[in-house]
Backbone:
């Protein structure tokens, strides 16, 4: 092995260049890692926000379902009332018809009784 200043100089440049390239690569990787960590952090925050929003929607859906159940019960009650009112109206109409028939029969009976006198 000979001591050659040129070889030493080439060796020094090669080692120094490799170290500089390695340092640049490390800096680039560190920068990319930091950017990815920031993105992960932002995505995790968005996930948490979306989970909270989903829970709020679930609660709202449950509340709306409860209101719908109450409304359906009220509709059934009102439908029963409507049927009862319809029956009552039909009964009232039948009573009116029977009263009219009764008046007609009374009038006929009076006519016969008075005509027979």
Residues:
């Amino acid at each position: 092995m000979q001591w050659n200043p040129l070889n030493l100089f080439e060796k020094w440049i090669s080692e120094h260049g490799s170290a500089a390239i390695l340092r640049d690569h490390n800096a680039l990787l560190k920068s990319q890692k930091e950017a990815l960590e920031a993105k992960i952090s932002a995505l995790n925050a968005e996930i948490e926000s979306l989970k909270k929003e989903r829970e709020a929607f679930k609660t709202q859906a449950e509340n709306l379902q409860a209101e719908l159940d109450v409304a359906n019960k009220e509709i059934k009650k009102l439908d029963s009332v409507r049927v009862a009112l319809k029956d009552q109206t039909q009964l009232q109409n039948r009573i009116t018809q029977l009263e009219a028939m009764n008046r007609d029969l009374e009038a006929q009976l009076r006519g016969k009784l008075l005509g027979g006198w």
